[in-house]
Amino acid sequence: MAERETLLLREFKEKLDMMIGLHQKMKAAHQLLKEENRRLDEQINLLTISNQDLTRKFEDLKFAKSLAGVNEDSHEAKIKINRLVREIDKCISLLNK
Q1: Taking the model in full, what pTM does it have?
Q2: Torsion angle (degrees, nearest 10) of CA 15, 18, 19, 24
Q3: Whole-number Å distance between alpha carbons of 29 and 35
């Protein structure tokens, strides 16, 4: 009977060692994935900022072209100027409060 218990105990220890090894591998893989996730989040933030900057530059370029007459669409330029004037008026009214 003791021999059977020793055999079961040995099998249990081997399986436990195997599970501990698997746990350590999974823990290391999890850490790598967390680091990659953090790196990708940083990359997304940088790309978002770059996208916003490029969008703003594109809008500025469109506005400059409309003012220069390249687009020959002065109506768009007037709309943009009116919007800017309204924004300035709002800022002035907030400063006056």
Answers
A1: 0.54
A2: 160
A3: 10
What's the CA dihedral at 85, 89, 91, 95 to 10 degrees? 150
63/25 Cα distance (integer angstroms): 56
What are the tens digits of pLDDT across the range 30-76?
999 999 999 999 999 999 999 999 999 998 888 777 777 655 566 77
The number of distinct structural domains making up the chain is 1
- The whole domain housing 70 covers 2-96
Q: How far apart are CA 84 and CA 97, in angstroms?
A: 20
Show Cβ contacts of residue 67 under 8 Å, excluding neighbours closer than 6 positions: 77
